[in-house]
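U., I forgot to send this yesterday:
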Amino acid sequence: MTRPRALVLHNGKAAFDEARAPFAREIEFLDLHEAATAPAGAHEVPAFAPERATLAVIDGLLARFPFRHVVTTSESNTAFAAFLRSRYGLAGPRYDQVLPATSKWRMKQQWGHAFPSARCWLPGDFRALATQGRAPAEVVVKPLAGSSTKGVRRLGRQECLDHLAATGELVVVEEAIDLTSELHCDGVVRDGKPRVIVPSVYNRPPLGSAGHNLASIHLPVGDPRRGPAVEAACRVLAAIDVPDFVFHLELLESHGTMRFGEIGFRPPGAGRAPSLLRFYGVDLWAEHIAAQLELPRPTRNGVTAPTGYCGVTGVAADPAGCHPSPPAETLRAIPGVVDVLPGSAHARSEAKLGSSVANTHLVLFSCDSETGAHRVLQEIEAAGRSAPCSR
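Result:
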């Protein structure tokens, strides 16, 4: 019996390659770049976008190697994968269903009513508001699409107006919030119902964290922040008309008031997926692949949460290249550290772009208390600062 095919929009993520291996018994994976440049194809794919040349290549592949599914491995190509499903009538979420998860403007239009969120505008509307004297004093300017805080800036009102005039870019201008903390929830929706929701808190807000270690501390049962975070996530998820997906959802907390930040239909980055697999037994990459292939998974209704405070922190790359990253064995020797995983091979160049996840290492940790977790994070950060300057 011939296995059904799935076209893969692959960005070279090792986590995806590892997770898809068990599915190869049921699905034949057709990687777009590899298939397009094979002798029979001999065409380069310009970009994962609905460009004429790219679509001509994919039309040809569909004619020669009929595929039923399109699988995405990154937030950057999620919308294009959905566009292809809509274009060819394939199984899985359509473009109109997925677009709000990849466009920050459409996200607030479509799902912003489900839970309180910061006000936002397109550039023309913000300029009109400023002319009327009703624009907020500080704002956050974001690209329409993107992740890891790349291209995101907090600006004063006039600075924002000058920036908009100078660039002419279509961006989202969002009212700035003075954060007490920033949380995120990661999990799985199946048959339109949340099956797994794991709430976590960042050790510092991701915006402005470039060059510093950004950690996620998973919140155990009994932590007072856990319930409100899960409730907020459930309200947002209930507004989403997609039956099966994996999500990374961000929440902004300011002096006791919770607001919806953003959501992506993907596993979280920067070691958070391996952390949830290690401590909660949830394989978000396998769930992500299965959801896109519409394959069944064992029914889950929640997870068993650890009793202590565990999580993961990145070891931030120095964009200047002055301080080398501490050796993995130095990090493993810190009490409370459970494991050390490799970070990005391009961490330094990503750090120069302002990415909040430009890490040389990913460190998993576990402690009995939140105080203990923060102590471990301080020791990890100190190990990076103590590395001798290479200049």
